[in-house]
Design brief:
5 strands; about 35% helix
């Protein structure tokens, strides 16, 4: 009996760790793009798992890979965490230069096998983390860094004006993606001013002792809200990054 190769099956995420070299080569020849989900191993409050950022970008990467038939790299499970959070159990962080060098090495290898565009998906707004991704270099291949939380989500939020940390956004997304990992009975609200949030993202401000680790209003999260937020993020990313614009009419 002859079985179809993974690269011939539609609607299946093309995870390269599950594929043979000839299957990978066939997909690259048809579409030389590679999605790289970049997660974190960082606390998001007592109610959410350590890998919340990772779970979100893995889910999105699989959906986009399946829809467009594009290769999906193994997840980078570690990012650059806020240094002031090192005391939280389970946290594990890379230095900015370590993440930057690791990505440079990986992209150089994949570029040598025919990949011409890299799409780095992340759900972590810590500035040094974003800087490590934004400064990655290649020989000729294009690199696109996609921070999914740059999408405007205000219309879905009741208690916040923007994504924060372990908040209404993160918690709603996890209730939609992996509800069995969420403990809403442990969710605690803690609000910061916009200036305090900016300083926190730079790593200049510690999470106050009266916060369990989350910043924002996780108590307002729902699975329905998470589904709507996820659909908005997916639609914005797919339209701005993955869809080829229609050619302009010469007339």
């Amino acid at each position: 009996m002859t079985y179809p190769s993974l690269s011939q099956v539609t609607g299946v995420a093309r995870r390269i760790k599950e594929m043979r070299p000839d299957e990978i080569a066939a997909v690259v020849s048809a579409d030389p793009r590679l999605i790289i989900p970049v997660g974190t191993c960082e606390q998001h409050g007592r109610h959410l798992p350590i890998g919340s950022d990772t779970l979100i970008v893995e889910h999105l990467s699989d959906d986009l890979s399946a829809e467009f038939g594009i290769l999906r790299a193994p997840t980078l499970e570690f990012g650059v965490n806020v240094a002031t959070e090192r005391g939280f159990p389970g946290n594990a962080s890379l230095r900015k230069k370590t993440l930057h060098r690791m990505l440079n090495d990986l992209l150089d290898t994949w570029e040598s096998t025919g990949v011409k565009e890299f799409i780095l998906l992340t759900a972590h707004e810590h500035d040094p983390h974003q800087e490590a991704l934004a400064t990655v270099t290649t020989t000729e291949a294009r690199v696109r860094v996609v921070d999914i939380f740059s999408v405007d989500l205000r219309e879905f939020l009741e208690g916040q004006a923007e994504p924060m940390h372990g908040d209404e956004v993160d918690t709603s997304l996890l209730l939609f993606i992996a509800p069995h990992l969420v403990r809403m009975d442990l969710a605690e609200d803690y609000m910061m001013s916009r200036d305090e949030l900016r300083r926190y993202r730079r790593g200049w401000l510690k999470i106050p002792g009266d916060s369990s680790g989350s910043i924002g209003r996780p108590s307002l999260a729902t699975a329905e809200k998470g589904a709507a937020i996820y659909a908005r993020i997916r639609d914005r990313v797919r339209s701005r990054v993955f869809l080829t614009p229609e050619p302009e009419d010469d007339a």
